[in-house]
Amino acid sequence: MKSLAERLEQREQRWSRWAVGLAERAASPQPLASEGLLLRVTGLVLEAVGVRAPMGAVCEVHEVQRAGNAGSGHAAPPPVLAEVVGFNGDRAFLMPTGEVHGLASGARVVPRAAPQVPLRFGARPSAHPWRRSEDRGLHLPMGEGLLGRVVDSHGRPLDRLGELVRTVPEPMVRRPINAMDRDPVRTPLDTGVRAINALLTVGRGQRLGLFAGTGVGKSVLLGMMARYTAADVIVVGLIGERGREVKEFIEDILEAEGLARSVVVAAPADAPPLVRLQGAHYATAIAEHFRDRGRHVLLLMDSLTRYAMAQREIALAIGEPPATRGYPPSCFAKLPQLVERSGNGLAGQGSITAFYTVLTEGDDPQDPIADAARGILDGHIVLSRELAESGHFPAIDVERSISRVMTAVAPRPQQLAARRLRQLMARLAKARDLLALGAYQPGHDAELDLAVRLAPQITQFLQQDMHERAPIPECRAHLQALVPATP
Questions:
Q1: What is the pTM for the complete model shown?
Q2: Closest CA to 59 of 49, 73, 74
Q3: Which residue, among 227, 331, 214, 339, has the nearest Cα to 283 in the 3D structure?
Q4: Phi, psi of 436 (to 5 degrees)
């Protein structure tokens, strides 16, 4: 037992440290938050003067209280949240995240207060200083309480299941991982889709693009991967899609089995561009949160093209000049910044395996966003409209698809069998016109004879019902039994 004198001495030391901390806090000047005025609303952009806030800071735009309504007892309308997206001299450009109807010139623009770190009693002042954080961006809910929930880009529940529990607000911006510190992609990931497992084997921590036009079954394929992929947590980002598809995707495609271990972030097409952009970043931040805690995460984002379109709307609204097909340079800079946040974490941590859907306008593979995505992703899976129209589902065009890490995660016999199957499919495609005209005569080309003989079996092998699961061992055995490993 400590003596009375020792306890009094320790108490005196704690009070001394507390007093020193208060003195340091009083000695360090704290800048006052500036408050500006709204000058102009032009399209999607709010222009304010007098605001001193960094890029990405969140501001509140308070509607002007008119003289006739000042004493009427009516509550003031809630402020409109806006984010600083640019500035020119003393003017700040803000992008709203809500409806701007009712705002008038002279509205107050107040930067949101940054979180403060309090000085804990008895702690060293240098360890827990009372300071104003420089991060004035959004802090949104993260944690286990998000599993099984559907939220919007601000972390507000959309599923009417009550408030979120077991979550803590965390910043959206994270420090990127050093490329030399990441774990390499060496472990295969079972997606449950036969064509992918056998011919386009995915590695844990890989980033792939799902290239498709409209109505070729990309949502069904995403739902199959959400239900069958061997992952601890699934994060689904529905960015810029039709509002009707949100509920249909959750109830008809994802179903209760997939939703139980999933977090769905929905930012439909009618949301402002900043909200759509934020939805993609929020979904990625949730995936990073679980990855940093050792989980293996599957991130499904539909779609990367809508994300680029939202950035295009913002960039053009603040005066950035357009470049390729109306997309300004910032669009092509934002894509790798978003994609590189996924992947494997540090050694011994979790991983994020990401699938980004890319909409090819008019089924044009040379669309600028599709072309840029191919260069920054670790592979691409192309869905063919011709296959979809013929009733072939999933409509994966194996010849135009590739997984750049398959050689690192698939055994050698599987690689040889997959290469052989591709050769037979290519040989059959070259002779398609010959077969259609009835000019094919067996016995003249042994390679073509084999391709024609195996064509029905290959087609059956690549087709799969959405409620059927195909694990990797079964896919490998089926593939090697279907075709010989060498020509």
A1: 0.84
A2: 49
A3: 339
A4: -65, -35
